[in-house]
Every structure is written in C-alpha cells, then in structure tokens.
Amino acid sequence: MKVLKFGGKSLANGKGIQTVVSIIEDKVRNGEKITVVLSARGNTTNDLEEILEKASKNESYLEQLEAFKKYQLSDFVGVDFTREFSILDKLFEGVSLLGDYSKRIKDQVLSQGEVLSAKLLTQILNEKNIKANFTDSRTLIITDGQFGDAQPLDKLSKKNVIHHFQKYNGTTINVVTGFIASNTKNETTTLGRNGSNYTASLLANYLEAEELQNFTHVNGIYTANPDLVSDAKKIEKLSFAEANELAYFGANILHAKTIIPLIEKDIPLRILNTFDYKNQGTLITSESSEKGIKSLSVLEDVALINLEGRGLLGKAGVDARIFRALAYKNISVSIISQGSSERGVGFIVEADKAKEAKSALEQEFEPDLHKRDVSNISIEREVSVISIIGQDLSTFHKPYNALIKNQVIPLLFNNTIAGKNVSLVVRKNQLHRALNVIHGEIFEISKKINIAIFGHGLVGGTLIDQIIQSARQIEKRKKIYLNIFSIANSKKAIFNKKGLGADWKSKIQKEGVSYTIEDIVKFANENHLENLIAIDNTASREFTNNYLGLIDNGFDLVSSNKVANTLSFEFYKQLRSALEKNQKQYLYETNVGAGLPLIDTIKLLHLSGENITRIKGVFSGSLSYLFNTFSEEERSFSEVLQEAINKGFTEPDPREDLCGNDVGRKLLILARELDLSNEFVDINIQNLIPEELRKGEATEFLEKLKDLDIIYQKVKEAQQPNHVLRYIGDLWGDLSREKGNLDVKLVSVPKSSSLGQVKGSDSIFEIYTESYGDQPIVIQGAGAGSRVTARGVFGDILRLAEKG
Ligand code: ASP
Ligand code: MG
Q: Which of 51, 440, 501, 723 has the fewest Cβ atoms surrounding its Cβ within 10 A?
C-alpha cells in the first residue's frame, strides 16, 4: 500500500482539490492500493488561528468566520458541515467571552480544519463512486498531553491503526485527517504546525507502506530555491541522511521527526507536485548517492548578534555565559563564529528573538560592559544565512573566492565537522547574487560572465559579433558563458539581462534609451548579475571618468581605449589602487600592438624580475605602411600617403597619425608597465607634419599633401646605401630609475635589420633584456585593424573569465 499525503495548497478550492480528486481516481483505476492523509485546505489553519486571536482580544471576528465557512463550503453540493461549524461557533464564542484561550482550546479549533478537509474529500470521492471512508485520526493516533506539539504514544497508536485498517481494507480508501490526534483522556491534540507530514509517516510506518508520496506544490527538492537561482536543478534521488541535512535548514516535509518513522522501516519518500503529478519528483531512500548531494538552503528570518570586547581575551566561561543567558530565555543559537582570540563572538538567532537576546546579554554582561571589557552588543538584521549542504572545507575556497570576486563578503561563516555543511552569513541585499555565484561554482554550471560594452564602432561592433558568434562554443569548451547584458554608445544604451543577440544593431537604433553610467550599474545590481566586466571600446577621454566608479561597483575592466593609461601618472596610480582595493582587474592588451601579446609578455618579464633595458619598434600600423612602401618604391611621399588614407589605414585626419602622439602614447603605456613614472610631456616626439600644416581643417590639409614631398624625398635620399626609413618608438636609458627616456622619431636603419625587414602595415617590437643580451625578444605582426583589435579585446575578456 502507498500512503498519499496532500498539503493545504494542493487541496485549495478550484484547481487544487479537482486535481487531487483526479490523481486519486487515476490511482484507483490503475489498481493501486492507497491511503490518503490530508492537511486542512488552503489557508485554513492560519485563518482559524487569526479568528481565534481576534476572538480572544474581543475584536469582531464574525465576518471573517463567515468568509471562512463560505470558503469551506464553496460550491460543493451535498456536504454537511453543520456539526463542525457549530463546534467552531461555540469555541470562538467561549474564547471571546473569556478573553483568553488555552493551548487545549486552540488544538480543538485547529483540528476542525483537517476534519472539514477529510470530510469533504470523502464525500466527493463517494459521489464519484470511489469507495472512501472518513477517518478521524483522533481515534487512532494517541499522544501525550502536550497540546500544540504532542508526541505520539507509539504502541497504542500502532495498535489502533492496524486494527482500523484491518476493518477497512480492500477497496475502500481511508481518507485520514493529518495533524490531529488525541490524548489518553480523549482530548484533541495536534502534532505541531505542518504535522500532517508526521501523521502520514506514522501511518506509513505502522502499516509498513511501500512508499509515502507527499504531494506538494513543487516538483521536488532542488539544488537551490528556483525562485532565486534560475539554474537550480531538481534532485532526482537522495538519501535520508542527506535529506536530514536539508531538513535542519527549514524544509518541513523533511523534519527529522517526520523522516525517522520512514528510516526505521526503510520506506521510500517521494516528493511530488500535485499540479504536475506526472513528474517523478524527488525520491528519498536509505541508499546514499555515490557522489553525495549538494544543495543550497537559505534562512531568511534571522538576525546576527555581535558581542565585541577586547576584555574578553582569555577570559574563561564567556561562551557559557552567552549560552546560559540565551537558554534561560529559550532562545536558540543556530550559527556561531568566534575568533581564537575571543575578541568577538557573532551568532545567529531568529529575527523575532533578536531584541530579547540583546537585552538578555546586556543583563548578563552588565559588569563587563561597565568595565568596558565588552564594548558593544549589536544586532544586525539585514542578514541571511546560506548553507551549502554537502560542502566540506577542502573545496570551499572555490565558492568563497567566487563570492569575494563578486564583492560579496560574508559576515561570518562556519562548518559542521560531521555533516559536511558550510554556512555563511551574508547581507540580505546580496543574498540573491551570493546564491547564484555559489550555485554556479559548486555545480560547475557554466560560469556566466556579464558584459557591458561601451562603444560599437569598428572595434566594438566587431567584438560584439565575435562574442555572439562564439559564445556557444566557448560555453561547451570552457564552461564559461559570455552574456552581453548591455551595449551602449555615447548617447544610448540597450539592456537585456538574458543577453543581447545578433540583432543588437537594429535594437540600439530602435530601442536605445539615453542612459548614465549609474543606470548600467543599477541594472546589473537589480538583476543580481555576477562576474561583471565593462568593455571600453570608445576612444573617449570622457568615458575614462567612469572607470573608478565601475571598479567600485564590482566591474572588471577591459579596454582598447588608450586614454586612461596615458593621463597623468597620478591618475594611473589612483586607478591601480582602486583595482587593488576592490580586487578587480583591468586588461588592455590592445592598447599597444592590437592583438599582439605584447603587454602580457612585458608584464610577465618584469614581474619575474627580468631587467628590461630597452623597448624599440614600429608601433603604428599606418606609419609602418607609409614608410615601408615609401622606402621601397619610387613613388612620391604624398602618393603613398594618399593610398594609405584611401585604404583606411590612417585616421580620417591623417595628422593624428603623423603627429606622433599615438606612438607616443603607446610608448608611455609600455614605460609605465615597467614602473617608470613618466608623463606624456616627457616624450620627445618628432612631429612629421611641418609647422605650417598643423593648424586648420582636415580637408585643407588633405589638399596640401604634396607640400610634404620635398621634405621626405630629401630625407630618403640622404640615407646611407641599403637603408630604409622607419618611424619608431624608443624607450631607453637606465630603466631602473624613476623615469626613462622616451623618443618617437623617424630613423634610417639597415634594410637587413629586423626593423628594416618589416613589411606591409606590420608592427614590430624589440624587447631588450639583461638575460637576452644583444638579441632582443621580437614580437611582430599585424598591429592594427579592427578585426585583430577586437580579437585582442576578446582575449582579455577570456583571461578575466578564466581567472575568477
Ligand atoms: N494544517 C496544519 C498546518 O497548516 C497541518 C499541516 O498542514 O500539515 O500547520
Ligand atoms: Mg501545510
């Protein structure tokens, strides 16, 4: 036989009760032998409690009582609740007269909820020609006299149950009231709130049922609350021992007293959903799974009490005093954490006990407060407890690090030695994010990286398309999911917490809204987005004003924008210390040499203690093309320049390249990588534009390109044989000092040298170091272009994603 238990929500008017009836019909049709245990319907027990409360305070309760009756009767025809209603009428009347009630009376009141429920279902089933028998558990389950939380007397109850079921076996379904019982004096008792679960497991035990099916309104036990963690998964199967761990943290179906009768007789418990009953639910048996299960549970109505004081150091009996004071007030402490120095003790109590706990402690520690041995006893209310069940300390660093990376700093944590649980106390406003971060980490679900992209020009646009195209692949290979939650230009932004797709371009045109950086931060916070990265693909000076704020709000940064690294050295340092403080990263590989792994190489060399003595090279793709071609071919300078402009190698106003500032900036960025504190003004830049052409509109300049011909023809011809022209950046001098020498200039080099051999629009970087001597490390390749730059930015994103 199977015992089926239906909870209050399953039995509510309308869809609930109808579905319960059809589940039972189904089972009967399949020839299954079943017994049914019921809760009160819908909100019945709470309603009865409220009415009782009102009656005792002499408030008017009749209206609510009428509504209650109406709910019970609903549009069921043929049910007769006269008896139950009149019992309730009398009880409430008495309470209202007396202005008070006992626990005994309360049990009598509440018990009617289950009676009404079982009576109704019996009637409905009988009307459908399913033989059913209303079974009042008060005649079967006999308890001690502790009203409100009675303990069953097993022997007696078992005898009664077996006897009853011998009488009514075969085809009749016993419809049993859950929750209620009676004491040996025949007075009504109850088994505590949610006690129907207990009734069901007692029956299952006494009758040695083959399974207990507990019908709820959820599909089973999840790895975390699916309302809070969208990736939460249903656990198909777990052991009683594992379930017991869950029970401790709240799930009432799994209350220890409820599962003990099942363990005793090895009866499987299946948690099912009335509203989706074809779903297999979660099966709990005595077999434990090989890997052990993990899940997250949350306690929300809690408060953290903190007792601080230097004077506690080394004093014996402090803990004992805390516990004694609290025990005296019947306040239980669930999580406690204490440093070995005993300078402070923090612990968790139920929220509604916090005030009482504080004053109990203030009383106990009054002398110590007076002597200032205890400096402070405080309550922190906006906290929640997350328990990671099945987590031991050997791998706890993973979820812990992920939390820190996401700016969730637990207020305290502790572990159980036997049960493999770790509990953390976090701020309530961080609960949602914390759960998702931990969940993703412990289940190795793809880590979601949430990206905001600023700027969608050539580089930015290409990057967005590259990410969208390869997101799936990367998820498969690396378990990292790149989710672009916002794309913005200087005026408008679009948002989607689930990720923007290939139609982003038309979206930004049609749906883009004006925004401030705060809106982006707010969106990320409100949607509890974790692992945040902001990408700056603008070339804007202004946008760099947002960097510090983004870092403070938990974003890592990636930028192809060079500006932030070439502002004052003061800002450079400020940015780094903000990163340090917030444990955030800032990557900008594409600032120099686009996608070439230059900055990373220099960083590593420098970090490993290798002395870099000089960095020299062709830093600009456009100027590389210009002088490589001009040196090789018998064409005028202006003709080659015009070609470079036409091919889009230069900026729209080519003077931005020719003035040398861009090369200067790149050189400065490299210098600063070596901890040199140079400023932009320290760079000696040879400007390739003659004085008289530096001012005025781009169009004017473009008309006068020929004016450059004489100058550069002369320079070309003045070279030694087999030499070529190169526009280079050169960092040299004693680089162990505060500042280095930074030159940006046009030079003539032997054609056979590595600089001389550069072709097309390639960049080349020679890194001279002490160990490598005269033979520099050479990094060469396409150092410009939107595709390679976007790839470089992409690389930085993946570096960050993999780190955390
Ligand atoms: N009706 C009771 C309650 O709400 C018992 C139960 O539902 O299990 O607590
Ligand atoms: Mg219930």
A: 501
Which residues sit opposite 488 in a β-bridge?
A: 454, 493
Phi, psi values for residue 101, rounded to 5° = -150, 155
**β pairing state of 421-427 and 344-350:** unpaired
Beta bridge partners of 724: 749
Residue of the nearest CA to atom 8 in ligand 1?
A: 194
* Amino acid, res. 592: V
pLDDT at res. 334 = 80
How far CA 766 is from CA of 580, 616, 617, in Å, comes to 30, 5, 6
Across 361-464, the runs of DSSP E, i.e. the strands, are 376-389, 412-415, 421-427, 447-454
With 80 as the cut, is the pLDDT of residue 253 above it?
Answer: no
Q: How far is CA 517 from CA 146, 212, 486, 513, 800, in A?
A: 61, 55, 11, 12, 22
Helix intervals (H) in 99-168? 103-127, 154-167
Q: How many CA atoms lie within 13 A of 422 on its CB side?
A: 18
Contact 766/621 with Cβ under 8 angstroms? no
- pLDDT at res. 340: 58
Catalytic residue among 666, 706, 745, 751: 666
Tell which one of 108, 193, 199, 252 to mutate to probe ligand 1, the residue whose CB is within 8 A of the most ligand atoms.
193
Does 278 qualify as catalytic in the annotation?
no
Q: Per residue in 645-700, pLDDT tens? A: 998 888 888 999 999 999 999 999 999 999 999 999 999 999 999 999 999 999 99
pLDDT by residue (tens digit) across 755-794? 999 999 999 999 999 998 889 999 999 887 888 999 999 9
Ligand lying closest to the C-alpha of residue 195: 1
Which ligand has the shortest distance to the CA of 40?
Answer: 1
Residue 651 pLDDT: 82
Radius of gyration of the chain (CA): 38
Task: Say which ligand is closest to the CA of 44.
Answer: 1
CA–centroid distance, 39 to ligand 2, in Å, is 6
Distance 196 CA to ligand 1 centre (A): 6
For residue range 394-415, list pLDDT tens digits in order. 888 889 988 988 889 998 888 8
- What is the per-residue DSSP string for 161-225? HHHHHHHT-TTPEEEEE-SEEEETTS-EEE--TTTHHHHHHHHHHHHT-SEEEEEESSSS-BSS-
pLDDT digits 0-9 by tens, 222-238: 888 888 888 888 888 88
Ligand 1: which residues within 6 Å by Cβ? Answer: 8, 39-40, 45, 113, 178-179, 193-197
The mean pLDDT value of the chain amounts to: 92
* Cα-to-centroid distance, 39 and ligand 1 (Å): 5
Q: What is the pLDDT of residue 170?
A: 65
- Mutation test of ligand 1: which of 190, 196, 212 has the most ligand atoms closer than 8 Å to its C-beta? 196
Q: What is the 331 CA–ligand 1 centroid distance (Å)?
A: 24
Tokens of 217: 């309104």
Other beta carbons within 10 angstroms of residue 592's beta carbon come to: 27
Which residues are close to ligand 2, an ion, with C-beta < 5 A? 7-8, 39
Question: What is the average per-residue pLDDT within 324-329?
Answer: 92
Give residue 233's pLDDT: 87
Q: For tokens 């079921």, name the residue.
A: 165
What is this structure's pTM? 0.70
Q: How many whole angstroms from 205 Cα to the centroid of ligand 1?
A: 20
Instruction: Answer whether residue 342 shows pLDDT above 80.
Output: no
